[in-house]
Design a protein that fits this description.
The protein is α/β, with parallel strands linked by helices. It has a single domain (10-241), classed as 3-Layer(aba) Sandwich (Rossmann fold). It contains seven helices and seven strands. The model has no long low-confidence stretch (mean pLDDT 97). The chain binds NADP nicotinamide-adenine-dinucleotide phosphate (NAP). NADP nicotinamide-adenine-dinucleotide phosphate is lined by residues 14-15, 17-21, 39-41, 62-65, 85-88, 108, 137, 139, 182, 184-185, 187-190. InterPro entries: 2-deoxy-D-gluc_3_DH (IPR011286), NAD(P)-bd_dom_sf (IPR036291), Sc_DH/Rdtase_CS (IPR020904), SDR_fam (IPR002347). GO terms for molecular function: 2-deoxy-D-gluconate 3-dehydrogenase activity; NAD binding. It holds the Pfam family adh_short_C2.
């Protein structure tokens, strides 16, 4: 049996319409999982890419404007892989940062991630869907402070912490919980940085790999962490950053 295979597994990826989530959905499907591509709007582009490659997928509207939105979607549905990818960022000086920008980011990046993981784990255990895997998308700002993104940094430090506590509680129950900390990946999330020539150059100059990351760089890592090959990995936050944190 190929330890990297996801044949026979059902997976759900949040924020799968674009960027890193789209690449993760494609990678999971490429390893044989049937993938639910969840988004606050349709994931038709991702579904088309998966089906064109011969994979199996369906779409689901899931908007974390309500952080409890996923509470009822897992029971009885046979999922054994969850990728908590949906996330937002708001940029402003900490002196000016608003409560609205604090709450919006914490709700999607942290509260929704926890309660989606809780609903998934409850269903896995009630339905006997183990071994199972949760992959959370963290950030370099799970380790570093960043600039002008206080709620994002707080939320991503929180994602690293939740990854560890959930691994502690669920490892022995057959659920692997891990996270990926992507470096600077070329997606909507980093458009503002790439549009600023000074920031863009400063970032590129520090990346040992000498390039921005591609969403596919994260997709393969997520497929690995969801697979039997990663069955003894619990509570890890894996940097996929072109060497940024090694610098
Ligand atoms: P992105 O293209 O902006 O994707 C973010 C995804 O989250 C989109 O699918 C977005 O949907 C979805 N989302 C936002 N608000 C939502 C809500 N209320 N309900 C449901 N889904 C929602 O950026 P990305 O770079 O691919 O980001 C994916 C993840 O990687 C995020 O958690 C981000 O923090 C993390 N990350 C990215 C980088 C990077 O360099 N790009 C680095 C570290 C970590 P819409 O398309 O409708 O907005």
């Amino acid at each position: 049996m190929n330890p990297f295979s996801l044949e026979g597994r059902r997976a759900l990826v949040t924020g799968a319409n674009t960027g890193i989530g789209q690449a993760i959905a494609l990678s999971l499907a490429g390893q044989g999982a049937r993938v639910t591509c969840a988004g606050r709007r349709d994931c038709d582009e991702t579904l088309g890419l998966i089906r064109d490659a011969g994979g199996e997928a369906e779409g689901l509207i899931l908007d974390f404007a309500d952080p409890m939105a996923a509470a009822d979607i897992f029971a009885g549905a046979g999922y054994s892989i969850l990728v908590n990818n949906a996330g937002i960022i708001r940029r402003d000086d900490s002196l000016d940062f608003t409560e609205a920008d604090w709450d919006a980011v914490m709700d999607v990046n942290l509260k929704a991630l926890f309660f989606t993981a809780q609903a998934f784990a409850r269903a896995c255990l009630a339905d006997g869907q183990t071994p199972a895997a949760i992959v959370n998308i963290a950030s370099l700002l799970s380790f570093q402070g960043g600039i002008r993104v206080p709620s994002y940094t707080a939320s991503k430090h929180g994602v690293a912490g939740l990854t560890k506590i959930l691994a502690n509680e669920w490892a022995a129950k057959g659920i692997n919980v891990n996270a990926i900390a992507p470096g600077y990946i070329a997606t909507n999330n980093t458009q503002a940085l790439r549009d600023d020539p000074e920031r863009s150059k400063a970032i590129l100059d520090r990346i040992p790999a000498g390039r921005w990351g591609d969403p596919q760089d994260i997709g393969g890592t997520a497929a690995f962490l969801a697979s039997p090959a990663a069955r003894y990995i619990h509570g890890a936050v894996l940097n996929v950053d072109g060497g940024w944190l090694a610098r």
